[in-house]
Design brief:
Chains A, B: This is Dipeptidase E. The structure is a homodimer. The first copy, chain A, is built from seven helices and eleven strands. Chain A has about 240 residues and is α/β, with parallel strands linked by helices.
Chain lengths: ~240, ~240
């Protein structure tokens, strides 16, 4: 039975890394002795080792040890054997390229379908969707494919941001970008605001964190769903 | 001799489409009877025909006729025979996918190297750089490659936006994204603010439009160059 926490962001304004998620992390990974960390997204170009240290120092406060997947000679086996898995944010193109390069997508998908508890933040959340085609990230590297894990039957837009009514900038709003996405793709998109996460328990998908989320469907007007709403029927 | 205008945006806040560029368009395409428009980037999912009408209504004010490339049975020949070419903004992934699908990149590159006057705005400017890896757009479709025209020896970040010191949003700033780009790529990036354009005349590249631009190089601190600066040595 799938057991996923898919968070929009790792960090809230004015807080430390993962601070707001620590109570959830403690519950979610209860009984795990060591968490496998996937640092491939490398925010700001940070090294795998430094990123793993950052994750470890946060997880330590929840009484959990962390080991980076780059430390294993057989990363697929590390995924299969993990007590729990956390994929951090950064650049989704880089994350997906590395997952393909290490042939990890099939084993990660199977492992998470079988119930290994998983936390994703930002890019680590994007990859739970059907494709990475609704990431906000810059295409700094070329992945062999945009298809991701498909653990949920829709896409996520992490760090969802409402249009700023006072903006004079002419770059596209997030809503315009997702509208463009729906000219070429049919799956729904959940605009997940910072501080929100999706809790996935088997086929139950629930919005958590206190905020509403914005749902985009092809050829429909976008709408809001409230905190604690079920998204089981969104596909 | 190359003869390009590469604008950050088509439209300034509170103005009509291409309004601020009309005096430049008139000079740049002086002597042309018809401009070939490449509408592939389809902003907001608008159709090729509607986008071409929008471009035509702006160019009409500069006394120029416009025809969309989608109206030609042989688009490569349309590029070769064009008096002048304009590629509008929208989604860079879509634009690049369509350019590859129609096998237009080599012919467009050769035609523009040989001096056919060209205007790009936003996505149409991004493709003049070495790659599309510094676009801000959402990857709504998967192009076969991120390599673009390489008419200038660097990349452009269109709609360049300075970090907002009052923001509480945790999505990456533009500067952070470009820093990530430079972990994996060596070419410089010109952060081109809205209202700015690059004028390329042969090997002479000049910043125009009244604003400074921000230059990013791998392993260097970013710096500003003033309006009317030469970028001939940036590579």
């Amino acid at each position: 039975m799938k057991n996923l926490l898919l968070a929009s962001t790792s960090t809230l304004h004015g807080q430390k890394y993962l601070e707001y998620l620590l109570p959830e992390i403690e519950k979610h990974f209860n009984g795990c002795s060591e968490i496998l960390f996937i640092p491939y997204a490398r925010p700001g170009g940070i090294s795998h080792a430094d990123y793993t240290s950052l994750a470890a120092s946060a997880f330590e406060q929840a009484g959990l040890a962390v080991r980076g997947i780059h430390e294993f000679s057989d990363p697929a086996r590390a995924v299969k054997n993990a007590d729990g898995i956390f994929t951090g944010g950064g650049n989704t193109f880089l994350l997906v390229r590395e997952l393909y390069a290490n042939q990890l997508l099939p084993v990660l998908k199977e492992t998470l379908r079988n119930g290994t508890p998983y936390l994703g933040t930002s890019a680590g959340t994007n990859i739970a969707g059907l494709t990475m085609k609704t990431t906000n990230d810059m295409p700094i590297v070329y992945p062999p494919n945009f298809t991701t894990l498909g653990l949920i039957p829709f896409n996520i837009n992490a760090h969802y941001l409402d249009p700023d009514p006072n903006s004079t900038h002419k770059g596209e709003t997030r809503e315009t970008r997702i509208k463009e996405f729906h000219q070429f793709n049919t799956q729904p998109v959940v605009g997940l605001r910072e501080g929100s996460w999706l809790e996935v328990k088997g086929s139950e998908i629930t919005l958590k964190g206190g905020k509403s989320a914005r749902i985009f469907k092809a050829e429909k007007l976008p709408y809001e769903v409230e905190n604690e709403s079920s998204l089981n029927d969104l596909n």
